[in-house]
Amino acid sequence: MKKLFIGKLLNHIFLVVVCIIILLPFFWIFATSLRSPANSFSFPPSFFPTEFRWDNYVEVFRSIPFFQFLWNSLFVATVSTVGQCLLSALAAYVFTRLEFRGKKFFFFLILSGMMIPAQVTIVPLFLVIKTLNLMDTVFSLILPSLIYPLGIFLLRQYMLTLPKSYDEAAFLDGAGYFRIFRTIMLPMSMPTLVVIGVMHFISVWNDFFKPLIFINTYEKMTLPLGMTILKGFMGNGNLSVILAGVMISVIPPLIFYVIGQRKLIEGMAMVGIKG
Q: How many structural domains comprise the chain?
């Protein structure tokens, strides 16, 4: 009993230490964002600001069109995440429940997309976007993000574990393939959908490369480009305002994660066990 208690105690101490290590950079960023520019580079460094400069956050929106960058990122990340979750679920359903010639070939062809770096395909993608007259529009960022091979793979692996008796019972009740997908497969795959949704949302939210190539005007720029503009506008002497922008940019993904935290943990457990 005593050994069990000591083991649990050491385990909790280890988890607390890991949490502190993970949260320490976020705390430092938040504390520095509230300092005056002169105190941002004080030595020796202090984790607690001597004065709280909340106007640093106001300066972020005053210096550049930060709200426009924030809205563009939120729109692109949300639309592309919803779209790719729906398309990934449909593709996974087709690969698990329908039989057609070349099914395995097409599945491995889609998976091969995970082995090709995005930088390799940027030239043909640029030509396609330019041909479709989508340059300098948010759709140039949304359309390439709708196909997510990892999401198709994870959903397919999960749907393979679902009994086909559900489909057979639905067929007897007169349901078609799409109704089975909408009423049975999609709700049962929700935990896995949350996992790939969170991963994809954060990936699109942090994407710097594609907006740099496809976007030219302030009105269409996303937050990663906006942070670069903020740093260039403020220079290296006003670190507090730059970190205030960083803190604001962290809030939407954090809210998205907190809302789906329960489903995310459940989905990761299912993917780990059944995948």
A: 1
